[in-house]
């Protein structure tokens, strides 16, 4: 006996469901559905068969078990031209189209206040099983996991149904869908246990936010993706309040600024150009810290990225646009009055980040290399006063100590070899990305001199140890009073002797902050 073709529909996202169900009915398909999907289809006046009528078994365990049955999976997996006798023996009818999307696990974990129990309850079991079965048997079955595909499948229904090429494409998209879903769950469970990649396999899940105009250069294409579950406090989840779409380079620079500024407790401003801080300051107000950060290197600040860890007000916004061209301006919140001021610069990209302490993205970083990936823990290393070892005859005084700890936070975000001069919780000169630490020191001093910033009484931070005393000798010429560095060189004693010769205080952190590779 010939039967009408059959479609099984069981979706959490009901966008376009009834319209597609109507198209299936109009093309002569019998519709089988479950739970809320069946109710929505029936409410639209479309004939639908409940899955329990197909399986002969009711939904149990609050809907946890409903489609895991041979009458469903046999109908999906049956090989046309091979399994008809088995199907006839067991009364199984083929299922030709499977329309399934999954419990909203990603949306659940992104919701404020979602409990672990809520997350676990939103792990779909039957859905992935049906999707994978249909995708495996795509020679005979079309599987749809995205409502965006309803229209083009519907267009084929009156002319024999989806082609082999379309079924193959839909199957590939289905496996990507379930792989993404499983990876989100895996990452959630790993992060709940504060775990890292375990050395066996690494799966990465990210959802596209938008295509970018191009990558680092115009001939490279690029897209922005967001980690699942991320809501606030990150660049990928920020709200663009005004301005042109962000470019690849805008985002890379903005991320460098954001990651630096989030690590200060008092009001802070970070100005970044080409992924390096060119001015950093902390203080009492947004305006004060902007003025101090800008003073470090106004030349580099032109066309840069400015990040705050405090609310952006109208006075600060006015000072910025009256003084300089800025590509991107970002802050946790932006006052309405500040928005009105910045609207005068329609091309300026203004981002509201949200609470910087709410970041919930992965605790590791990834870099693509030829043929593989490099994966490492995110550099969350923090040094406090009690972690420092004084190695010179003179210990830093309280003022110097405060500046040393500030400088250490800044140097972490400067490309290696990195040297930072600071005083009064503000940068005075920054040397980045040189092959020699001595040259980084010289460049930092030149930048300070160019802006008439006196280095006398300042402190110096180095992201890694000094291999020779020449770096200390070069820095001492500019009147610094104290140095913070990791230590660990074979010539540490020589470097310490140099500091003592110049009457400097030196502390060692025992922690290095190399920042030379572009990690994603």
Q: What percent of residues adopt helix (DSSP H or I)?
A: 25-40%
Approximate shape: elongated
* Distance from first to last alpha carbon: 59 Å
Q: Number of helical runs?
A: 19
Beta-strand segment tally: 21
Task: Look at the helices and sheets and give the structural class.
Answer: alpha/beta
Q: Could you state the oligomeric state of the chains shown?
A: single chain
Strand content: 15-25%
Mean pLDDT: 91
Largest sheet: 6 strands, mixed
Poorly predicted sequence stretches spanning 5 or more consecutive residues: none
**Adjacency order of strands in the biggest sheet:** 8-13-12-11-9-10
Rg, please?
30 Å
Describe the structure.
By secondary structure, the chain is an alpha/beta fold. It contains 19 helices and 21 strands. The model has no long low-confidence stretch (mean pLDDT 91). It has a six-stranded mixed beta sheet, with helices on both faces. Strands 16-21-20-19-17-18 form a six-stranded mixed beta sheet, with helices on both faces. The two termini are 59 Å apart. The protein is elongated, with a radius of gyration of 30 Å. Helix 19 (492-501) links the parallel strand 20 and strand 21 (505-508). Helix 14 runs parallel beside helix 15 (336-342) and helix 17 packs parallel to helix 18 (470-476).
Q: How is this structure best summarized?
A:
This protein is of the alpha/beta class. The protein contains 19 helices and 21 strands. The longest helix is centred in the middle third of the chain and has 29 residues, at 164-192.
């Amino acid at each position: 006996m010939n039967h009408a073709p059959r479609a099984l529909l069981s979706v959490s996202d009901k966008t376009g469901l009834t319209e597609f169900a109507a198209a299936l009915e109009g093309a002569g398909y019998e519709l089988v559905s479950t739970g809320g999907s069946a109710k929505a289809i029936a409410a639209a006046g479309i004939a639908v068969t409940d899955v329990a009528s197909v399986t002969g078994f009711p939904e149990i365990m609050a809907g946890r078990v409903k489609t895991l049955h041979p009458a469903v999976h046999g109908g999906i997996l049956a090989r046309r031209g091979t399994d008809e006798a088995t199907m006839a023996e067991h009364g199984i009818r083929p299922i030709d189209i499977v329309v399934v999307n999954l419990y909203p696990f990603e949306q659940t974990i992104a919701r404020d206040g979602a409990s672990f129990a809520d997350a676990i309850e939103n792990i779909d079991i039957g859905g992935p099983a049906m999707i994978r079965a249909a995708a495996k048997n795509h020679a005979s079955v079309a599987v749809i996991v995205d409502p965006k595909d309803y229209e083009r499948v519907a267009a084929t229904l009156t002319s024999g149904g989806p082609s082999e090429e379309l079924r193959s494409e839909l199957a590939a998209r289905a496996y990507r869908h379930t792989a993404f879903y499983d990876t989100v769950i895996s990452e959630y469970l790993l992060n709940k246990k504060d775990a890292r990649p375990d050395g066996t396999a690494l799966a990465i899940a990210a959802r596209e936010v938008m295509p970018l105009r191009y990558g680092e250069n115009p001939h490279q294409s690029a897209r922005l993706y967001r980690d699942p579950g991320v809501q606030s406090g990150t660049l990928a989840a920020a709200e663009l309040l005004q301005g042109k779409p962000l470019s690849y380079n805008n985002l890379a620079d903005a991320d460098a600024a954001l990651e630096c500024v989030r690590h200060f407790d008092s009001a802070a401003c970070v100005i970044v150009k080409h992924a390096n801080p060119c001015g950093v300051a902390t203080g009492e107000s947004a305006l004060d810290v902007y003025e101090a950060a800008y003073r470090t290197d106004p030349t580099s600040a032109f066309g840069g990225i400015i990040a705050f860890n405090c609310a952006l007000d109208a006075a600060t916004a006015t000072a910025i646009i009256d003084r300089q061209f800025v590509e991107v301006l970002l802050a946790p919140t932006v006052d309405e009055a500040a928005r009105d001021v910045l609207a005068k610069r329609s091309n300026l990209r203004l981002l509201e980040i949200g609470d910087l302490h709410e970041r919930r993205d992965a605790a590791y970083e990834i870099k693509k290399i030829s043929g593989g990936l490099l994966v490492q823990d995110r550099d969350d290393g923090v040094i406090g006063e009690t972690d420092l070892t004084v190695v010179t005859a003179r210990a830093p005084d309280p003022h110097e100590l405060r500046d040393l700890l500030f400088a250490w936070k800044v140097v972490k975000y400067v490309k290696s070899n990195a040297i930072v001069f600071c005083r009064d919780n503000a940068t005075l000169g920054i040397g980045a990305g040189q092959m020699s630490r001595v040259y980084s020191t010289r460049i930092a001093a030149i930048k300070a001199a160019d802006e008439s910033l006196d280095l006398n009484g300042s402190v110096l931070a180095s992201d890694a140890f000094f291999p020779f005393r020449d770096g200390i000798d070069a820095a001492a010429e500019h009147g610094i009073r104290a140095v913070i560095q990791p230590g660990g060189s074979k010539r540490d004693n020589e470097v310490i002797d140099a500091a003592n010769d110049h009457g400097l205080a030196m502390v060692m952190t025992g922690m290095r902050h190399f920042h030379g590779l572009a990690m994603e």
